[in-house]
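Anyone? Bumping this.
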Amino acid sequence: MRILLAEDEKEMSNALVAILKHNNYSIDPVFNGTDALDYGLSENYDVIILDVMMPGMNGIEVLEKLRQSGINTPVLMLTAKSQIEDRINGLDKGADDYLSKPFAMGELLARIRAMGRRKSEFTPNLIEVGNISLNKENYELSNGKSSLRLANKEFQMLEMLMTNPKRMISTEQFMERIWGYDTEAEINVVWVYISYLRKKLASLEANIKIKAVRGVGYSLEEGE
Amino acid sequence: MSQSKYDIACDTLSPEQEFYQGSYVLLEGAIIEVLSRLDIIRKYKSTQNFKDPVEHCKARIKSAESMMEKLQRRNLPVTMESALTQVYDAAGIRVVCTFLDDIYWIVNMLRNQQDIEIMEEKDYIRNPKSNGYRSFHMILRVPLHLEDRIQKVYCELQIRTIAMDCWASLEHRLKYKKNIPNQEMIIGELKRCADEIASTDLNFQSIWDMIEGIKQNGGGDSDEDFAGRR
């Protein structure tokens, strides 16, 4: 796991680098906000640790710019104990977690591990269930020899089903997650999209299928 | 609607007639035979208030030039005989359908023609070519009733949807153009389009099925298909 550490206090930074390296993380230390933004934009990191108080650009500004550029790397803010405003502001601007100084090293490591787990849920670009794979990058549904491109909503729906195989997902859950609360779409649009997906799975001779339970919802089942 | 006459496209008649000689009429005959069987069934189906599965048909006799090129490429004697017996696409028909299921309907209908032999079937819809090409190919051996004998003639069929046909005509252009810039990117983009079209074809079929009220099947539990539908 690769970590970007933006901390302007040299001693603090050296100590963190030593401990994180000792725990088998690869770590790039930077000492001001401008460098933090440049490095962060490279998208090479699994976790970014940002000190709030930094020369050049403060941690919250860096965070804001990263999120505006579409960088979703989990961010841990390091704040001074007294600065509650910083924590609220940081979290609102897109930080995933914070730790107030001084902190115990064990807690920092635990929080990094927790963020790493969150990240890894999103990393695999290929979801595979049965003989079927779904590529999150290009929306390609494939059985290895033949492939189809899914439209956006079809993709989101199948992604929900394939990341939670065997779990029942209700029509309302699909509506809320994919169409949103304020949609004008009628609820039976879900059934229409389920029909599309079923046809596509069948055409790829999939050994998984979307099972329906009346009044409950849909789930992805393997076998056959 | 069904065709009433058989347009067989062949721009330059004379070189082909020269090359195929007396067999030219046999190739025409094979095409007419297959097209007329398709026609009869289409007409019959529409009298029964069913949708005509065929959008249109196109037929051609392979030009003398490309036939000679093909024979040479395969190290076969460049003669009318080998054109009719060693390769199978001297007579060719393309059947363009509206929906995916129509393709398989046509295939089954041809399988049921007792006197037509099916020499080969290739389902490039289930198993698309690596460039994304999709169609159902069949090679038929069609009996022609002549004055004193029955002559059997090969005829190649390509059966596809309108969307597949549209893709194929674009891809065809690429094949005959040399030195295209960004060729790899274009091939990749065409493949992506093919996969999107295939996806859309399946949606068209699903929507048609919904309109017709055909129950979607997932395998038996169709009663439960209306989960959450109220």
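Late reply, but here is one note on the structure posted above: The longest helix of chain A spans residues 105-122.
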